[in-house]
Amino acid sequence: MEQHRTRPAQYGPRRGRAPLPPQGRGTGGAAVGRAVARPVGPGAGGAVRRSATGRPAARSGAPVARSGPPVARALRALRRMPNPRLTGLGSGLFCAAVMLVLGFLDQVLFGASLTVYGVLFLPVCLLTALWVRKGDLLTAPVVVPIAFAVGLVTVAESGKGVGGRLMGLVTALATEAGWLYGGTLIAGSTVIVRRIRLLRRRRRANDWPPSGSVRPRDGRPSPRP
Questions:
Q1: Within 10 Å of residue 202's Cβ, how many Cβ atoms?
Q2: What is the DSSP string of 18-81?
Q3: Could you give the CA distance from residue 124 to residue 119 in angstroms, rounded to a whole number?
Q4: How much is the pTM?
Q5: Smallest Cα–Cα separation from 82: which of 140, 139, 134, 131?
Q6: Do residues 179 and 118 lie in contact, with contact meaning Cβ atoms separated by under 8 Å?
Q7: Which residues lie across from 132 on neighbouring strands?
Q8: Which of 20, 72, 79, 223 could form a disulfide with 68 if both were Cys (CB 3.0 to 4.6 A apart)?
Q9: Is 163 exposed, middle or buried (0-12, 13-18, 19+ CB in 10 A)?
Q10: Helices marked H in the chain — which ranges?
């Protein structure tokens, strides 16, 4: 009688195979996923949140320190000031009117002190040179001495009649010539600095495109390799 050969089962537990690690199991993988998805804050492991640029981001509620030296902050404060543009005639009228008002205030408050009048004349010269428009820069050093003489009428010692007033004005101009020259020098220096900056801006505008670029046929500049 013929006997059939029995074959071992192909699907069965293999001997000698190492068990799977906990990460490969269902419960272990879920635990690892929850550990990875857990947000990391400043208190967990000392981690610090970083911004998109890679630098540590400031914490919410922490005071932000003002950056920059005092000179830069002073310049930013000056830029926030009003910046009108006066014509040549307008700058002359502005300077003369301000000096008249300051002269009357000096006469009322300080008893017509020529020193106080000269000190107040300096910032008026600076503002006049800063506020005159670009096309009338050269008029600022010219109108400043005229405004000084106009406002000096209110504080100069005057005698009887027109001759006495004229003599007092000439005497005040001779004795306070230092303030007059100082204010004119401030106005002239400010105008020169503004003129140099204006010429540099025009030169940069004329030099565009830069000298190191090549202009192709379509007219657009392309940098050299």
A1: 10
A2: PPPPGGGSHHHHHHHHHHHHSPP-TTSTT---B-TTSSBPPPTTPPPPPPS-HHHHHHHHHHTS
A3: 10
A4: 0.57
A5: 131
A6: yes
A7: 86
A8: 72
A9: exposed
A10: 26-37, 70-79, 88-109, 114-131, 140-152, 161-175, 177-206
Return the closest-CA partner of residue 101 out of 162, 147, 159. Answer: 147
Taking CA atoms, 188 is separated from 127, 128, 219, in Å, by 12, 11, 43
Specify the long-range contacts of residues 36-43, CB closer than 8 Å, at least 24 apart: none
Residue spans of the domains in the chain: they are: 82-206
Phi, psi of 140 (to 5 degrees): -65, -50
Residues 184-211 have pLDDT tens digits of 999 999 999 999 999 998 888 887 655 5
pLDDT at 51: 47
Q: How many residues does the chain have?
A: 225
**Contact yes or no for 86/147 (Cβ under 8 A):** no
Nearest to 116 by CA among 136, 96, 102, 135: 102
Structure confidence by residue, pLDDT tens digits, 3-59: 555 555 555 555 555 555 555 555 544 444 444 444 444 444 444 455 445 555 545
In the chain, how long is the greatest CA-to-CA distance? 163
